[in-house]
Write a structure and sequence with these properties.
By secondary structure, the protein is α+β, with helices and mostly antiparallel strands. Helix content is 41%, strand content 22%.
Amino acid sequence: MVSKKLQVWLPVFFALVMIVGMMIGFKLREKTSQLFSLKGRDELQEVMELIRSRYVDNVNADSLKDAAIEEVLSKLDPHSVYIPATELTFANEDLQGNFKGIGVEFQQFNDTVNVINVIKDGPSEKAGVKIGDMIIKVNDTISLVKKDADQIRKALRGPEGSKVDVTVLRGSEQKKITISRGTIPLPSLDASYMIAPKTGYIHLEKFSETTYEEFMSALEKLQKQGMEKLILDVRGNGGGLLNEAVDIADEFLNDDKLIVYTQGLHAKKFEYRAKREGLFEKGQLVLLVDETSASASEVLAGALQDWDRATIIGRRTFGKGLVQEQYQLSDGGALRLTVARYYSPLGRNIQKPYTGGKKKYYEDFYKRYSNGDLVHGDTSAPIGKAFKTPGGRTVYGGGGITPDFFVGVDTGKMDKNISSLYTKGTLQNFIYRYYVNNMAAFSKFKDPVSFANQFNFGEQEWQQLNSFAVRDSINLNTVPQKDKVEMLQRMKTMMARQIWRYEGYYEVSNQNDKAIKKALEVLK
């Protein structure tokens, strides 16, 4: 028989044993859970976990993660990149061809946001925002003075239909304007017009989701104006969506001609072929390229060159023959990973070498300038295997698309004070303010052609620029006459950009463009 005293204390004893057992078990679980949480992970995950849980100081885990990912990707090709969640929306907008915002083009002068253009029929124009307004506040609390471009964009953009109050300074008067945000297009086609009798001109700045649609609209409009020959300009076009370039190539190539094919270690060969009757399968075609024409631009150039469909004019292209796919990550960011190489119809892969690392890869442009490639033509031997086109031309793989006719860059050394006008933003500031102060005079020009034929900057404007530049410690009194004449012409081009955006810029600048002159010569 158990004594009554023991009967009383047994439950207490068992309770204590259970509590102690639970405490020991909890401590063991705490230790082993860390071990089990690390088990099955790779070394990188283990290191990150240990830094989070054991490191002596506070660290920004996200910045460590980003740095680790960048280091991993640096061992791959230069075009496999990680896009943090904070940058993904902005990165995708360029390919989508639109964004949600208020519809103004702005520039910072003296740390203040100046409205240099208002999108026609956009939210800001409807609300009454004008060119020349200075945006100083958003929603009464956010000052835009001395903010960087990213901070300004974040303050002004937002969901479609959402309202934002902006305080603008117009002259000496402050005005509060309420704007309903909308969808703002980001056109990929900068300019399209008849550059000569029966000859059209189109400039594509990128290949986004709307490029083919924009291109077709421009092509049909030019054909209605009597276009029989076309200059298609992809200089400065860094690429974009492969399908858009394929669809445009299809408008120039007949039957079921191969346009491009892709293939990778984990991606089976996939062919893109012409599949419909194109709008411009027989007219004379010139394609303008330069050292910054890349990716999708090179897909288009490669297809047209391999089939002897176009005359290529300019300078050897960038040399990007890799295809990326974008994968969404759990942290909200994305990985654009190279999954395949693309090949021209003849089987050319035009990717330039990248074994020297990303820095050396992108510095190739400066190397080409210093060794004379961009001035006198390619001085080095062609890279890669030689191929023959149906028309008998020899073309090469590796290192980009080499044009049929070379047009070098202008090597004229510019006066250091002229260079400072650009680097300090002085020239753009002057052009903007000159326009704002003379809007009535410029309104008489109905289009860029009439402006180009009837307007020129002269000595009076040069002296005004000289006085304006003094504020930025720039002295134009010693500028050589040759540079001065060229500068006055550039001022005219920039004014056309201010008034008509890029449509005006190209219509005026093309009048003195050496590649354009060569294209017109070839088409004759």
